[in-house]
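Researcher: Going back to the complex we discussed earlier. I've cleaned up the inputs and rechecked each line, so this should be the final set. Can you rerun the prediction on the complete assembly and write out the structure?
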Amino acid sequence: MSDQTTNPIAFVAEGTIPPAPPPANETGIVKWLRENLFSGVTNTVLTVLSLLLIYVLVKNTMPWIFNGVWQANSLSECREILAGKTGACFAVLTERWPQLIYGFKYPEEAYWRPNLAFVLMLVAFAPVLFFDLPRKMLLFTAVYPFLAFWLIWGGTILVPLVALIGCVGASLVFRKLGSNSFAAGFFGAIATALVIWNVGGALIPEGASDNAWLTAVPSRDLGGFMLNMMLGVTCVSLSVPLGIALALGRQSNMPLIKWVCVIFIEFIRGVPLITLLFVASVMLAYFFPPDSTVDLFLRVVIMITMFSAAYIAEVIRGGLAALPRGQYEAADSLGLDYPQAMQLIILPQALKISIPGIVNVAVGLFKDTTLVSVISMFDLVGMIRGPILASTQWNGVYWELLGFAALLFFVVCYGISQYSQWLERRLATDHR
Amino acid sequence: MSELAIDREIDRSKMQVSDEVAIEINGMNKWYGSFHVLRDINLTVNQGERIVIAGPSGSGKSTLIRCLNALEEHQQGRIVVDGTELSNDLKNIDKIRSEVGMVFQHFNLFPHLTILENCTLAPIWVRKTPKKEAEERAMHFLEKVKIPEQADKYPGQLSGGQQQRVAIARSLCMMPRIMLFDEPTSALDPEMIKEVLDTMIELAEEGMTMLCVTHEMGFARQVANRVIFMDAGQIVEQNEPEEFFNNPQSERTKLFLSQILGH
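Model: Rerun complete. Updated structure for the full complex:
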């Protein structure tokens, strides 16, 4: 007997089996429903219960929303119009709209200025967020902070101009000196900026803002959601670079830099933000020269920035630690120096790993800007809790106002989160 | 080990050792904490030499070549690479690193950059080569390692052998005078070992000075002009490959060879 016929293991495929379409009940919506909603007795029961719950919720909220009154001058007027029906009093939103958005002291005829600043902000952020856009647009991004300052605060254009010249001078000095020694460039740049700011500040005549084309608006007149946006955007954009610097400093071989960073991070993280805000509003004045009037907005920005920078630094440290040692070694072995290795190899990868964490901090920070209402700044929540709810017309309209605040914050935070997910997909090059 | 990996005639016409000294190590010692990893290393490598460093794991062979471009710091002794002494001076270290290419066991390509960008990065930023020229040179070396068609892909899309060849091309783009190989084939499948060894042989045929830490004894036998055997942090034996394999002197070498070639 030959092995060929009796060997039970031997097998040779006789040809290629052609691909066939799957059975009908394995595709499309039927399959999806069966797998996701009705895959067993328990799941079927849960599906039915959930549908019931959704139905009850919708049934009870829809009349409230759709019967809503949009035009009225007070809560009692709302109730008259509703005449006993269930319904929301959205009229508070329309009537107090400017207060919710701009605060109650910002001059009405100047509302176009923050509006324009907001639109320009979108243009300024575009090239940073979407790097397929032409790089030349970054020039506008660089000018934008000064422009926005001028638009929102108004007053003489000389102030933001001097600030801009100081920054340009500093970056020129850094480019010149920094190519030889990073430290020389760094300190040279800071010195240049300080000199230009001081000289320029002294040159601006007293009262230059009095009859300026854009009326000057003091910081205490800012308010509403505009204030939340301003604080959120400023603090996030400042705390990311500061966080990177702190994370790198914490990894430094130089003990002085390392310990300064460690102490800063640990101290700031160990203190509640609300405490820092009280320090900003009450105690920080003791640290500045007696007759200097450092703006409250600036003090709050400093505190929130430090707070979130400490968190972002730890997030980025995690990203740095997640990189294989080999990446540092490969960068070293090619002769890249420290700034090059960081800029080209290490940070792009570490930041990519850190995106979810950074976004987490950014979203948290944005919502934390409402804490400034505690130190009597009238942001969105401050406006609602203070001037609006305390007024005789609108006393008691909680759901509509706070729901509106929640919606505004949700839209922004959800947008940030969606952007970060897009960014992660866009940057995914490792094909794991 | 896989002696079968090399299946072609090797062109020895350009494999010439010159009198010019490429690397000189004098009385070098290194400790990790209190552990003495490298003990009194003395080694002179001439331009054009192809040296294979073998030894059991933990014998310090990787540490030795990593000291040559200051990825590891040595505590005692002198290392002179291509006329520049390795000291704490960062300028010297960067100079040496840009003249000495290194290939790692785990390739260490930059995963966020394309193959072409991996190859042009250092020439553009360290050597200040114009982008166009750097790209042309990169394509030249990618053709040499036979993967020009992958230039626009990312490292994660390539096989291990292809990645290692890119790593070699990336080093070559810096026009190094010396190449260090730290177990370049240890993380690869047998089929891929061959493609990487072929690339290394071609490099040797062009007269490159090479120091290879490897377990590929076939490569050592046919390409190296000198084999160094290390154990417990010291150089135990060094000889021409023929003598080293057929007539080892020290007991330790004999044991190692019997283990590595025995089956």
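Model: Worth noting: The radius of gyration of chain A is 29 Å.
Researcher: Good, that matches what I expected from the previous run.
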